[in-house]
Amino acid sequence: MSCQQKPAVLGSEKDLMTTLEYFNTAFAEGDLDYLDKHTTDDYRHTNSSSKAFGKEAWFNYLKTRKKDLTNGVLMVENYEMTEIEVQLHSNSAFVTGVVHTKGNHYSEAFDRKLRVSHYWVFEEGVWKRAGFHDTLIE
To answer: Residue 138: which residues within 8 A CB-CB, separation 6 or more?
Structure first.
């Protein structure tokens, strides 16, 4: 490869956007199988209220969240990602945006906006989220 050529992008932006849409729906609805398939084994999750943690700890949280969804103590009225910007690299992507989430958890209403950053990698023929960070903005 000459120094003038860019490395080929392995996964398309269109496929990434489709995966991101399904990923957000899977999170809102508690579809753990989809989330597992589209999360790397060495996944890192950070937010403004905790230290960084890995996939196992995130899935422990997701299992509790799924139980709350199933039992009706968590009701998600809205989970929408806007202001999406994508930077593609050869087999990875950095995605930023704003997530608006609204609902009710244990009879306490919530309505939040979060600035989010995702790190995605194209692995085993699919886009997988490898890292995530959010910060409350409203």
So the answer is: 112, 113
By the 10 Å C-beta count (0-12 exposed, 13-18 middle, 19+ buried), 23 is classed as buried
pLDDT tens figures, 66-114 = 999 999 999 999 999 999 999 999 899 999 999 999 999 999 999 999 9
- Report the C-alpha dihedral over residues 110, 33, 84, 16, rounded to 10 degrees: 180
Q: Could you tell me how many residues make up the chain?
A: 138
8-11: which pairs have CB atoms within 8 A and are 24 or more residues apart?
8/90, 9/88, 9/89, 9/90, 9/91, 10/90, 10/91, 10/122, 11/91, 11/93, 11/122, 11/126, 11/127
Q: How many CA atoms lie within 13 A of 107 on its CB side?
A: 0
Identify the CA nearest to 30 among candidates 73, 1, 85, 82.
Answer: 73
The neighbouring-strand residues paired with 121 are 92, 128
* Other beta carbons less than 10 A from residue 73's beta carbon: 12
Cβ neighbourhood burial of 56 (10 Å; 0-12, 13-18, 19+): exposed
